[in-house]
Amino acid sequence: MNRLAEATSPYLLQHADNPVDWWPWSDEAFAEAKRRDVPVLISVGYAACHWCHVMAHESFENEQVGALMNDNFVSIKVDREERPDVDAVYMTATQAMTGQGGWPMTVFATPDGTPFFCGTYFPRPNFVQLLQSVATAWREQREAVLGQGAAVVEAIGGAQAVGGPTAPLDAPLLDAAAAKLASEYDATNGGFGGAPKFPPHMNLLFLLRHHQRTGDPGSLEITRHTAEAMARGGLYDQLAGGFARYSVDAHWTVPHFEKMLYDNALLLRLYTQLWRLTGDPLARRVARDTARFLADELHRPGQGFASALDADTEGVEGLTYAWTPAQLVEALGEEDGRFAADLFTVTDDGTFENGMSVLRLARDVDDAAPEVRARWQQVVGRLLAARDTRPQPALDDKVVAAWNGLAITAIAEFQQVAAVYASPQDEDANLMDGVTIVADGAMRQAAEHLAAVHLVDGRLRRVSRDGKVGEPAGVLEDYGCVAEAFCALHQLTGEGRWLTLAGELLDTALAHFAAPGGAFYDTADDAERLVARPADPTDNATPSGRSALIAGLVAYSALTGETRYREAAEAALGTVAPIVGKHPRFTGYAATVGEALLSGPYEIAVVTDDPAGDPLVAAARRHAPPGAVVVAGRPDQPGVPLLADRPLVEGRSAAYVCRGFVCQRPVTSVEELVAELG
Fold it and tell me: What is the pTM of this model?
């Protein structure tokens, strides 16, 4: 009996009709394996995963394979996005056993959850042979299997250990991290390393802050060049906005087409901050259109943001997105079709499969003549309308707390910068206004959804779907990302309740996730016990739980003046510092927060009767140093600690600038404020 029909996970629901007797992750599944005295087969993936779909079609939908699995195993299907704790433990085991990891992940374990054989994708003939071999080994070589499992558990226990060496995350370490990134930088194509190439959003956020603090031009150039290369390549959707998960090549031409919420949230922050610091028109456009993508394509009305758009459409990668020259002519006519083919590098040979091309922007059109920009945008609109008639990729519509936190923070920052640069004279001022309105609504609905649905009895739940919260408990990254988001929303809105909620989440994390020596575990002390308790300090596709929590602690401490949260952040950063200088590509968010602490962070309060239009507020947000917090509102506004006991100066608006809890005299002119922030 397949037991997935009632799951909240779209990934599990994709397997609800398989001939496999799937169980969801549960104590009952392991009890059944113990009763039958058979191994457990744990299959881990996620809804937008291309090779997960391939293995499902080849093996899990096959009656003979299903019978083989049912006869010899208890099979458990896990959504890695819903249960990142389970994924982390068994991914560490897979990497320890095979030297690599990925999804789908295939793990064979004893009835107590101890892994003894791990792998990833297996073609059906190999998978059938593997099933037969493991079943035989379990019956005939049980002692060897158990010994292998014990060795794997020992290895993953060491990999997830806490209480290791610590060091201050100081300026020399951050300088070394920036230098190491520069040495690994692909000066030709942008980014770091070779194929496949992932968008290095957190590393670029770090380099932007490093440039702000030190004035290093190299850090800014690496960021600017990589941001432009990604935005003009196939990684970026040239019609609708939004970024794909990664590029299969080293030059950003052909993407793996899935679009993840977390990537687009972090990239929105990157392009927003690049726009803020440089005024770059490409960064402005990409930030605007990425915010629009989040609000239009991923936001679920009245809820939060969905997790992802699938890599496949009707089982085919790129079916929605790729074009031939003839298709462009069919959609646009002969003249505009040739114009589009030239502009978007669509050739007869193609850059993708079967003579198809992924759209790339061949030239910089953001600074082109007005008539060229107008034609480009008109062509984009017509192509998007034509593309909308094609089959569309499936949506993974579950709401993940941590990723929604990242999106809320990104949109809050985008709203602040958009207000700084707002100008009725801009040719697309109406478009920008429209995007900020819908993005603001989506952001607020997502925050309300997290507060009303995901917070249950004072604890955070990981996922929801269709407005109903799931059972999986929130992990450390959920608490950190949501707390940071609520701090960002407090700064944008001046509403005290968001700061109160952030403090409650941080207090829960400090009480239930703390580990020896200032570190943190990824799961709570009262969470389900796994074969190891994960505590990964490294940033990968998303900030680690530790880095996310540190960011929340730093922001909350700056907004409230409560030093114990800063002390906890500094201690936790000390546990990551030994990795930062040596492996900065895997500590980008930790280094980003480290730059904020090294900078201060600055605490900027603007007392004013017009927080939306006061030039002092715009100057504070435009010139804020790395990681600074900025609040604006009436003196002694309830729920806003930074505005307490800070009056107007002779009836005029005033800015109060503090750094590390040490304050300067209030200033009343933009020039004085900019000088203090310089």
Answer: 0.93
